[in-house]
UniProtKB/TrEMBL annotation:
UniProt-recorded name of the protein: Kynurenine 3-monooxygenase
GO molecular function: FAD binding; kynurenine 3-monooxygenase activity
Cofactor(s) required for function per UniProt: FAD
Organism per entry: Verticillium alfalfae (strain VaMs.102 / ATCC MYA-4576 / FGSC 10136)
GO biological process: kynurenine metabolic process
Pfam family, any one: FAD_binding_3
Residue spans of biased composition, Basic residues class: 294-308
Length: 437
């Protein structure tokens, strides 16, 4: 029997909402505190099938592959699909705000859940299990906000990269903490739907395929597009800070920049709209509190919204933290650069062929392990590295084998010639040594 406890969740985004849902379903009393009065961001996220809650997937789009966009050597535009999984498994594109709203709607119907919006965490005593919140109202803008005190049995911090919960935990316990920035900013754009008649194909509203995650890789940067249920695409530009600053100084060059590095985008988003979106929308670091997990495979909320059994394995979770960050950055590099690499595509093909024709070996691509399997991240990293080492060893063996076979054949067929040659080389080496003396 589970001992009923009081859970306090700080942050009502998808992560906090899902944590609250798990606790509430187990019969605990849950209070959710959120600094914001409402959610104004509405960007798409992608969910792996392993992290989906069927009750939350409202009008999802199955994405079976990445669609890589570029310009060929002849100047023509091209699209190249790269399947996520050789066995046909897919990820799902959903509106992040819609997913969050659906989770909150479920929580609002639960009698053991309470919401407190416009509440800012100002202090926490983890020994006495007390916390203090400022109530942010219109009156508090002109004077000191009213402060309330609450008690809790367990506090869950789901309040972003610059977490107030973590800040107060660091006062209570000795924690090693490091925050790294990757020198990249992101900015949001939109591809508008096509106006069609009601009797036409529903997919006709999409300017590009709704069943793909669209990527314009630029090696050091990228532009991606994810479908929304209204026929539009939520797009994100990931760009190094220096180049972002250069475009901020000269916004008129944005259409030319897109034509050069993201061919075909200006046919989907007019140049004027590109400039307006770039100037209007904020340029944020991926580690900003509003979007800390965007680069984590937009992970699909998977690292936080994964299988429920993870919540029963706190010790195992400790070993996963560093691999989560490593995999997130590796995926970012994969999307912006590796998808163009013949070496990456060859390894992906070899691992998929091993998965199909030699399933007993348990080979899979790293992406499939992360998105569709129920493995610890540390295991994913270890197995991916092992597969890489095996492939390198096999490649080296294939390269060296002709020389080895040739040497053995020569030794078998021409032993006298080898002996004479060896004797001649030895005599020459000895004579050269004496001449130097």
């Amino acid at each position: 029997m589970v001992l009923k406890q009081k859970f306090v969740v700080v942050g009502a985004g998808p992560v906090g909402s899902l944590a609250a849902l798990y606790a509430a379903k187990r019969g605990h009393d849950v209070e959710i505190y959120e600094l914001r009065p409402a959610w104004h961001q509405c960007y798409a996220a992608t969910l792996a099938s392993r992290g989906c809650l069927s009750t939350c997937l409202v009008q999802p789009f199955p994405c079976a592959a990445r669609m890589i966009h570029g310009r060929g050597s002849n100047g023509d535009l091209y699209e190249a699909a790269q399947d996520y999984d050789i066995h046909g498994r897919t990820i799902f594109a959903v509106d992040r705000a819609g997913l969050n709203k659906r989770l909150l709607d479920i929580l609002e119907d639960m009698p053991n859940v309470k919401f407190f919006f416009s509440h800012k965490l100002t202090g926490a005593d983890f020994k006495k299990r007390k916390a203090w919140f400022e109530v942010m109202t219109s009156e508090s803008a002109t004077g000191r906000a009213r402060e309330i005190e609450i008690d809790f049995d367990l506090m869950i911090g789901a309040d972003g990269a610059h977490s107030a919960v973590r800040y107060h935990m660091m006062k209570f316990a000795q924690l090693n903490y490091r925050q790294d920035y990757i020198g990249t900013l992101w900015c949001e754009f939109h591809i508008k739907p096509v106006k069609v008649r009601s009797d036409e194909n529903p997919n006709a509203v999409f300017r590009i395929s709704p069943n793909h995650l669209h990527i314009w890789p630029g090696k050091d940067f990228m532009f991606i597009a994810i479908p929304s249920d209204d026929g539009s695409f939520t797009c994100t530009l990931f760009l190094p800070s220096a180049q972002t600053l250069a475009l901020e100084k000269n916004p008129a060059s944005i259409p030319e920049f897109f034509d050069k590095h993201f061919p075909g985008v200006t046919e989907l988003i007019p140049g004027r709209e590109l400039i307006e979106s770039f100037e209007r929308n904020p340029h944020l670091a991926p580690s900003s509190a509003s979007n800390a997990a965007r680069l984590r495979r937009r992970r699909r909320l998977r690292s936080r919204g994964g299988p429920r059994r993870v919540h029963d394995e706190p010790r195992a979770r400790r070993a996963r933290r560093t691999p989560i960050n490593d995999l997130a950055l590796q995926n970012y590099v994969e999307m912006r650069a590796s998808v163009l690499s013949p070496k990456y595509r060859l390894r992906k093909w070899l691992e998929e062929m091993m998965s199909v024709y030699l399933p007993g070996l348990g080979w899979q691509t790293k992406y499939s392990r992360v998105s569709f399997e129920n493995q610890r991240y540390s295991e994913v990293v270890a197995q991916s590295e092992h597969q890489g080492e095996v492939l390198v060893s096999v490649f080296e063996a294939l390269v060296c084998s002709p020389f080895i076979v040739g040497a053995v054949w020569l030794w078998w067929k021409q032993p006298k010639w080898i002996a004479r040659t060896y004797q001649t080389w030895t005599e020459k080496a000895i004579m050269a040594a004496f001449e130097r003396l």
